[in-house]
Amino acid sequence: MQITIDLPPDLEQDLIRQATQSNIPLPTLILQVLRHQMQPPSTSVSQWSEAILSYQGVSDFPAFESYRNEFPLANRNYFNAKKPTVLDRNKSGSK
To answer: Is the pTM of this model over 0.90?
Structure first.
């Protein structure tokens, strides 16, 4: 089957450039683009196995957050903490 279509100049140049970069003939590129466009939409397939998707965890395992207060400096507010100055360091005895 042969079909003739008029392409806008920018699309024509894009197709020619892509075919050249891909090192394939222009008609082959156009067929590939049409075939790709005409494929039925693929159903979303998860890359995770069913074993992973259905994993419920260990019911008696403590939540990570339950250990939060045991971390060093867990209660320090890093965003509102005052930056030590030279004077503060001299007062504490460190130089």
So the answer is: no
Spatial distance between the Cα atoms of 84 and 93, rounded to a whole number of angstroms? 13
Mean pLDDT by 10 residues, the chain (95 residues): 93 96 95 90 76 84 77 64 61 55
CA distance 9 to 46: 40
The DSSP string of 1-56 is: -----PPPHHHHHHHHHHHHHHTS-HHHHHHHHHHHHHSPPPPP--SS-HHHHT--
Q: Is 19 exposed, middle or buried (0-12, 13-18, 19+ CB in 10 A)?
A: middle
